């Protein structure tokens, strides 16, 4: 799964990992900002990495959690969805608006393969000091360069070069 090869999401090990992630999310999403003593250990235990002074506002949703690597001083606002069948890296000082969706999960284009229920994924890399506006969608395999800005509601279908501002569906360079 993590290598980008086709995999069966019904695999018992993967089902168990998703069940564990759901238990983590149930506990995390019942907390409030004042529950730092509870939140930090939950994030440290279930994410691949969580940087110093990183903040994730509940509710927060993941597939597995262990494929998510968050740098220092990162902020994720309410309702973010990170489908982490592959690695998601978020660089330091990045700010992510409410309802942002980051999808590494993908499905075969061939209808027979889809019918068989197999899937694949592509990793996502988000650089440092990036600002992603609310309800943006980041599609599988995308890299977003340092110091970039993603407009609210944008759909990111391809890589964003460092220092670029993009917006729209599909997102296009605006500055």
Automatic annotation (TrEMBL):
An example Pfam family from this entry, by short name, is: Mac
List UniProt keywords, sorted A-Z. Acyltransferase, Repeat, Transferase
Q: Coiled-coil annotation: which residues?
A: none
Every copy of the Maltose/galactoside acetyltransferase domain together lies at: 1-52
Q: Fetch the CDD domains from UniProt.
A: LbH_MAT_GAT (cd03357)
Report the InterPro entries cross-referenced here: Hexapep, Hexapep_transf_CS, Hexapeptide_acetyltransf, Mac_dom, Trimer_LpxA-like_sf
Instruction: State the similarity comment.
Output: Belongs to the transferase hexapeptide repeat family.
Q: What name is this protein filed under?
A: Sugar O-acetyltransferase
Taxonomic source organism: Parasphingorhabdus litoris
